[in-house]
């Protein structure tokens, strides 16, 4: 378990006060916080994961509210956008600069996923990939006299398809697989679909500054940036999903985590290869999945 | 003759005549009063009678007034109250047409097609409006579309300027001039639309609503800046 450092200890005192004031307060059904509730009641404190008991309460109330409207009403979708500016910024920061051992969903999201972050991060990533790719092609061919600048607008369409498919279909697959395993093995609760989408969406944030930095035409720098970005965002994903699969058989656990990491790697390498080329020819635009594009450009290099 | 008696009198006559075939007219006494609408004071109710020129001019004046509001954005509710989508449509079509005729070496590597510009502008406005409403904004759907559409006007002006500058050559100087013009008009658009839209949001979410607007006009600005004429 995480050991409390000075800062957390101060915050936690507030939380215990809240708990002691209302010992009957309902907490979330996750094993971590329920142990904290018991500990708080007896006065013996062991900090587990969440800092703010008060926020957890309100997020549970929120979750209760969410279920009351049907999915055809506007209010249902409004409940997924119930975030403030500071919350979004905190979540983005949490996806980039997180400490090892912290589960993104439990700690940063505090189990109230939103759709604002994932959606707008994907849109920004689409445009930053297309624009930066265009700029890098332009800078590459600056020397040659026959080059006529072309906006290459079709790249926006391709980037949009790839990024949105990744950010929505892969979480669907991961969630489906985890829910199926959890039902088979009768394990503790997994994550809801929205939380999975949220994790994937926020983990893509690191690629936005990476794609801008990819404009610099140094090959070693681009590979270094890929490595750094993959380590950061991959670790967010791994740390989130590891606690859920670790109770499964060893093979399944490792296979799941490995698949997540490999897909993530394919996305970043595929984007880098397709949008930022050092070869002089322009590729045949194709809507095939990432690895095919990577293989094609590899063959023609 | 009082009305009640008259009606009964008439009914009796007709009842009695129901089984009699009539060949001629039967003279009926009485008065018939049909309420005739007095010419109403508001013009909107009797716009069918006015000449077409008046109708068109009135709509054009409304559109023109909104253009002026965008040029000098101040917090007035006229733009919001009387929304219309003519202005945005006009601007969108003008912008999309002017973005055509770019470099024609290959269809794929060129600039945005007409349909792509249209889709980006309208679909983008709808998404931003939905985003603003989902975050709890109090502005209505069409009002927001109207504001976003009208605030494209500085960018359309920038497009015209860019095309004129490109007539004079496409070297470094023209690029810098175009960059300055597009940056200035994109900031103007964002500022103008934020002046209208940000008020309808609670203060802790203003940035969440302004950012998509910024992204929207940034993308349009990039499309304008990267327009390169056929060689």
UniProtKB/TrEMBL annotation, chain A:
This protein is called Protein YIPF
Q: Which PANTHER family match?
A: PROTEIN YIPF (PTHR12822), PROTEIN YIPF2 (PTHR12822:SF3)
Q: Which GO terms describe its molecular function?
A: small GTPase binding
Where found in the cell? Golgi apparatus membrane; Golgi apparatus, cis-Golgi network membrane
The protein's UniProt keywords, in alphabetical order, are: Membrane, Transmembrane, Transmembrane helix
User: Mind telling me which InterPro entries this protein's record contains?
Assistant: Yip1_dom, Yip5/YIPF1/YIPF2
The cellular component terms of Gene Ontology attached to this UniProt record, alphabetical and capped at eight, are: Golgi membrane
Keyword Transmembrane helix tagged: yes
Membrane spanning stretches: 115-136, 156-178, 190-208, 220-242, 254-275
Q: How does it sit in the membrane?
A: Multi-pass membrane protein
Give one GO biological process term: vesicle-mediated transport
Q: Which family does it belong to?
A: Belongs to the YIP1 family.
Instruction: Kindly report the protein's main subcellular placement as a broad class.
Output: Golgi
Q: Which residues form the Yip1 domain?
A: 100-267
UniProtKB/TrEMBL annotation, chain B:
Provide this UniProt record's keywords sorted from A to Z: Membrane, Transmembrane, Transmembrane helix
Q: How the protein sits in the membrane?
A: Multi-pass membrane protein
Keyword Transmembrane helix in the entry? The reply is yes
Q: Which Pfam families match?
A: Yip1
> Is Transmembrane helix tagged as a keyword?
yes
Question: In terms of domain of life, where is this protein from?
Answer: Eukaryota
Compartments, as annotated in UniProt: Golgi apparatus membrane; Membrane
Per the record, the GO terms for biological process are: endoplasmic reticulum to Golgi vesicle-mediated transport
Q: Could you tell me which residue ranges the Yip1 domain spans?
A: 73-223
Q: What is its main location?
A: Golgi
Cellular component terms (Gene Ontology): Golgi membrane; trans-Golgi network
Q: Which residues cross the membrane?
A: 83-102, 114-135, 147-169, 175-197, 209-228
Q: Which PANTHER family match?
A: GOLGI MEMBRANE PROTEIN YIP1, PROTEIN YIPF6
Protein name per UniProt: Protein YIPF
């Amino acid at each position: 378990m995480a050991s409390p450092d000075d800062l957390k200890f101060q915050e936690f005192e507030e939380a215990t006060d809240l708990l002691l004031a209302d010992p009957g307060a309902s907490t979330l059904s996750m094993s971590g916080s329920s142990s904290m509730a018991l500990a708080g009641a007896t006065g013996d404190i062991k900090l587990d994961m969440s800092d703010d008991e008060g926020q957890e309460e309100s997020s549970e109330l929120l979750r209760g509210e969410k279920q009351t409207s049907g999915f055809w009403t506007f209010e249902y979708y409004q409940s997924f956008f119930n975030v403030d500016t500071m919350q979004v910024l905190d979540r983005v920061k949490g996806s980039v600069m997180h400490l090892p051992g912290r589960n993104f969903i439990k700690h940063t999201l505090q189990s109230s996923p939103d759709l604002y972050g994932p959606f707008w991060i994907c849109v920004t990533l689409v445009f930053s990939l297309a624009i930066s790719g265009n700029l890098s092609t332009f800078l590459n061919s600056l020397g040659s006299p026959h080059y006529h600048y072309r906006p290459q607008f079709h790249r926006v369409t391709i980037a949009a398809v790839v990024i949105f498919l990744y950010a929505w279909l892969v979480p669907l697959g991961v969630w489906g697989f985890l829910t199926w395993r959890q039902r088979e093995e009768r394990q503790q609760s997994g994550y809801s679909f929205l939380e999975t989408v949220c994790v994937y969406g926020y983990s893509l944030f690191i690629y936005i500054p990476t794609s801008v930095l990819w404009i610099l035409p140094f090959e070693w720098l681009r590979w270094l940036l890929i490595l750094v970005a993959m380590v950061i965002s991959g670790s967010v994903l791994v740390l989130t999903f590891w606690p859920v699969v670790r109770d499964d058989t060893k093979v399944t656990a490792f296979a799941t985590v490995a698949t997540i990491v490999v897909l993530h790697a394919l996305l970043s390498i595929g984007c880098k290869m397709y949008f930022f080329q050092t070869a002089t020819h322009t590729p045949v635009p194709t809507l095939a999945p990432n690895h095919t594009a990577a293989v094609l450009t590899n063959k023609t290099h | 003759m009082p009305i009640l008696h008259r009606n009964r009198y008439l009914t009796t006559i007709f009842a009695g005549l129901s089984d009699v075939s009539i060949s001629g007219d039967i003279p009926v006494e009485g008065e018939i009063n049909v309420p005739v609408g007095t010419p109403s004071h508001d013009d909107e109710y009797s716009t069918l009678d006015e000449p077409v020129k008046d109708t068109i001019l009135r709509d054009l004046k409304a559109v023109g007034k909104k253009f002026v509001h965008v040029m000098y954005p101040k917090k007035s509710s006229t733009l919001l109250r009387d929304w219309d989508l003519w202005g945005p449509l006009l601007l969108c079509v003008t912008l999309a047409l002017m973005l055509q005729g770019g470099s024609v070496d290959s269809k794929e590597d060129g600039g945005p097609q007409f349909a792509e510009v249209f889709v980006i502008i309208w679909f983008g406005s709808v998404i931003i409006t939905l985003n603003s409403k989902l975050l709890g904004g109090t502005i209505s759907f069409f009002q927001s579309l109207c504001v976003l559409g009208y605030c494209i006007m500085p960018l359309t002006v920038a497009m015209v300027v860019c095309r004129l500058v490109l007539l004079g050559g496409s070297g470094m100087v023209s690029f810098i001039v175009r960059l300055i013009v597009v940056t200035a008009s994109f900031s103007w658009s964002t500022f103008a639309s934020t002046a209208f839209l940000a008020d309808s949001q609670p203060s802790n979410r203003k940035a969440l609503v302004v950012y998509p607007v910024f992204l929207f006009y940034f993308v349009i600005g990039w499309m304008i800046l990267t327009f390169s004429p056929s060689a």
